[in-house]
């Protein structure tokens, strides 16, 4: 188990991530990762069968920024937003001082029409480390969804 | 009201909503003389392998028996109708129904009925009960170069005749060496299955709805390419060759997508390797009624359309590469996966556009019709221009052939 | 079984459940000669403003063009039926369909079809294709003192004749000066749309179901007031004047709501200002089939009934005040908003009572009928007593006029 | 296609899916000459007690009036159809409808109509309105040894004739002294109600689907026991006596459940006390169409089947013991509750197996049939072997008697 | 970021609020506010368009008590209860020593019939301060729901 | 209110319980209880009427292990998994040094087919104590579900 103070900082990072997405401040999202950080979304079905296909995979902030560009400027979809819930945090310190964590997440999607539905549940498998500026950032965030299904489309990162 | 001739060009919207039509389609199309994508040969690697899937709403199992032979079976116990196989895939020696333990061989033959002879000769099945009459109902299979197709109808044409020469050739082109599955997507769409079937055949929408294409000049209707129809239009293909810069007469400013100031922070996403001598970079092939086979740059996938009621459809994606991919090519495929599927830069819109039609055509729309006149009213192959809805009309030709004309 | 004459007094419950009846209503009522509330003039402040809404299940757009003129359009692309406008409101220069980019002027005229002429003259629309034939289908509008009504039918009477003299007068009374929207509510009710339509016309329930009224002696059936019907009962109003203390002969102890010991910790909620010379404090006006216009003290709102299947209905509230409200009056309206809407002390019960009827009338109820005999069987205005269901019978008169008699 | 004679042996699967059949069942079975479990006498302990439940989709109230007499009433206000009682149970002096305050006596008689006489004689109900004509519609009740049955039909046989001699005897056996409710389960099953009705009558599945039985040799088809049918098969019972070790001719290896290495870490779960002289340890009794009465060791329960559409069914469990249970016996019942209900080791599978049939019989299955030939095609009591589907065929005999033959 | 100890006290206040509503101890609810505290519920639709209309608005404990009276004594509805989940807590100290926080919430509604549904998601925008008795209380709690819709009715405060 | 350090340890126990179930490591589940610990699942309907019937009741680890055996080896059901969320933690120290806590839970169930639904909400009513090995364990965990209904079946403990 990691120190209480480190745990608190990591949990705050998780909460900040949540607020940035749920408050539709997606431009700040890549900044939560190391410059060469990795963000991937896949399903337990693919993961359990060791199949490498991902729904989204961003290697480095550039690819994350492009996802933000797609969301804001290019792709077409009905307006909607996410609401996240987090529970089930576990952590361990790695040899290099970074922290490996797992944390369950729930995402509820609300459409502009008012329709509410559970969009995804699953867990974040993260490696978090301290960046040169002293901030904690994600070296890796792997999102594994419990369901193999995606309703309609996935444009906002989970 | 339109005359019966032009359902191909004037499609009534109520067909997308009516429950009776939906049930009629299950009978005339899905249980009819049609071939349906079930899985890939490579997904059944060894004796005992099985995969479960659907033909329309009918649950289906594909098995590989001890001799390595493939079998298609309806996934419904002959006793009282329970699903016999529940998992999406796996390995087993026998197919055993949970309810009363009726057990079937991998070829579907009924091998054991618990208490068939009763208890101490009392009860059990009647003397004239013959297990041979109660095997799992067969689904005829065709393994065409590693793609497993199935049909519920006895009179369905052989697969090559059904597909037509160009479709066969294009499948051979891609399935010329062993493939390996790299993963799956399962996408729920809130629209009638026919709206997705149209969408996949629709060359007209690709470069307009999917703004990403135009934004990055990846694929445009004005590129070289063509529309191919076989089997009187049942099966179609839309392909683009290489790349071109001329914009044709269609004012690019109308492409809401062309935004000079938009660029990719990491253009490596667009790197691709030319894999085929014909320089075709994008090819979408649709086999009537529900199979789609795609090449988009280095992404290769099968798509299966699974109807779940008049207003709901599932799309199952099977993403594959070649067994002999070098590491770099494999990485290209996986990175380009960002382009396709439910989160794909050039395909996510297909997940919602059908729903926009579904919702746009209720109420007064039940009395109106779509208009499919781009390129005229014929159903034929076209190489000189893809500003043509011939492939979509082809789908309705097939629909009419089986369901008849519904005004 | 009742004879056909008295559907007004004996309403069969199966009308609330049957899918075929629901579809018939879409055609005969919603696409029929009826006016429907769409929005307020003030919600389209400038050229390019648009609002999306519904007439029954039919999606509708209201636009204001460059000349400031309003247009009603069916929100369905003439090409293949996609919704053209998705947002609930906004500003735009043109209406562009996402699917293939067909683009329409704000008046609905088709302005551009991508690749209409094909590519280098190949493909594209046939020579006889005339864009004039493919504008968005029009919805006839009537702007009555700032309320925008729309109809899908060509033969619908002019709005004043349709409303009737008293309805017109009452709308003029409220819309005598510029209004401003203060907010919206959207409420989902699990009942047939007709149950809410009845509820809004039902003077009988108000002071009994909504116990808050009686508890605080705010509004009672025994007050002065009246029931007004116009257009043979299609349109109705129920109003109360001032306040009174006599209880009539109906024993107040029967009002489960009258609880001497219940008081408000903060009675400021009940402060209101008399805004109208006629001293009417509560007036609920219903325009057949789906528009409700309310004044409850200082709360002013339009309510639109949007059917979404035999068992589901949405109610859209538009809450407004006057542009020249002084600060205190504006605060009164907003505080009194606690009385209305989905969380309103005197209206929340309407959100569930229709569901209680929906669930109460299934099974054996499909063979039974409601009884609407309070005040007799006539449909007429009544000023001497509101212990009368004339206004509810009026709704069924309109229903029968359009749908015919369904026994 | 099967001839009409053998619907008992060859049941068409479309009956599980068709909405028109479902509605027909509501009329012919649930509103027909059938008795339905409503509640237990002990759940209405005192004057004013009421319980709400269902007969099919029809909402029902059972009340105990001031004289202690029980009354069955349709839970639908005679005015406009709202549910009159909302809570699942409670105490009240009168049944008052929330909508307009019509108030009923506990025997259903209409006692008060607010504003019946109008206000100062104006409005109100017409002179010929007679409250006697507007009581809550009666549900005929039968209190058979503490089990309250209800029927909506006037011509339903008296309960003893309906049940038949063996059914009566078995109920008397269990209800020979005062019972007390220990708790409830409410289970949602995604299948047609008939699939659960079959399941409860199905002696064939118990020891195969419910692997727990065989694993721990608790209850096996090869034990002593029998199948009893009364009323031409409408009502049936399946019971086992004591225990036996011989496995009969059915190879135990086929029982996927027999796993030598599986044991209970805490075998106290299996402790039970022999309560009945006949040494019957498991008895499942089914009263057509929707009532199930169970004894599984020391667990006693009533199960009520509540249809909620062609593909959804609720199962309501009422778990009881005797008022004079000693503490140890009461604890045995509660510990054994781990065996039954939605989480029961020997019953949880019933919650999903119907859904597996529902999903297994769509699509092409709509043209196929179940085969119920175990033990022949007769509907009769059998004591020599329970390898027999006579009790399931009995259900279809009852179904055909009321609904007619649907091919 | 506020001190850890203050953060813990504010989070406890959030959890107490949750328990009071989910345990149907609504009589205690007004006590979580300052005597002149403000409680408002509105939708993102109204909020985003700067429209002042609220679903519920209580200025002072009196109006909150009246909502409790309506719920217990006056208004009519089918029995149901809420279940809350909280995630995404952020806070900042204000000049006057009070704390401004935002926290996401999810409310699941269960009807007496057993029906379960997501009733609302959104965020609490709060100002919390220390009352004369040393307790932390809400000066303001503004509830903004993601969906513009209300299913059936809203009688229990969110 | 219990000491912060104890609260943190109890919350970690809750999170570990969650992860063990959501990660399908059910074999570890009985170890979170005292050897003679009690686990019960019932509905508010039964609880409110003081009816003793439970959906599951395990007295001692043996009965819990048997539930795991049923899940892994004996009972038959469609593959599915749970996702938990926790909120609304309250605690009090008991005379004997053990801790009584209540905490709200939400369980989302995902079927192998991809179907997602809210399976249950409710609260955990726990008594937690320090075991001989210094670990905190449950002396009692009573799960009370808000809904009286169970969808299909209950085989994985809540
Ligand atoms: S249904 Fe398959 S064995 Fe009975
Ligand atoms: S559907 Fe609108 S442009 Fe094709
Ligand atoms: S519906 Fe019951 S009193 Fe009117
Ligand atoms: Fe597309
Ligand atoms: Fe009302
Ligand atoms: Fe069973």
Molecular structure report:
The complex is a heterohexamer, with three copies of chain A (158 residues) and three copies of chain B (407 residues). With 158 residues, chain A is an alpha+beta fold. Chain A has helices at 4-22, 44-48, 61-74, and strands at 33-43, 56-59, 80-93, 99-111, 116-130, 136-145, 149-151. In chain A, strands 2-1-6-5-4-3 form a six-stranded mixed sheet. The two termini of chain A are 26 Å apart. The mean pLDDT of chain A is 97. Chain B has a seven-stranded antiparallel sheet with strand order 2-11-10-5-4-3-6, with no helix packed on it. In chain B, strands 12-18-17-16-15-14-13 form a seven-stranded antiparallel sheet, sandwiched between helices. With 407 residues, chain B is α+β, with helices and mostly antiparallel strands. The chains are: A alpha+beta (158), B alpha+beta (407). Chains in contact: A-B, A-C, A-E, A-F, B-C, B-D, B-F, C-D, C-E, D-E, D-F, E-F. Chain A binds chain E through residues 8, 12, 15-16, 18-19, 22-23, 81, 83-87, 106, 108, 110, 112-118, and chain E through 1, 4, 44, 85-90, 102, 104, 106, 118, 120-123, 146-149. Strand 7 (149-151) of chain A pairs parallel with strand 12 of chain B, so a sheet runs across the interface.
Record keyword descriptors for this entry:
heterohexamer; A: alpha+beta; six-stranded mixed sheet; about 25% helix; globular; B: about 400 residues; alpha+beta; seven-stranded antiparallel sheet; 19 strands; about 25% strand; binds FE2/S2 (inorganic) cluster; binds fe (iii) ion
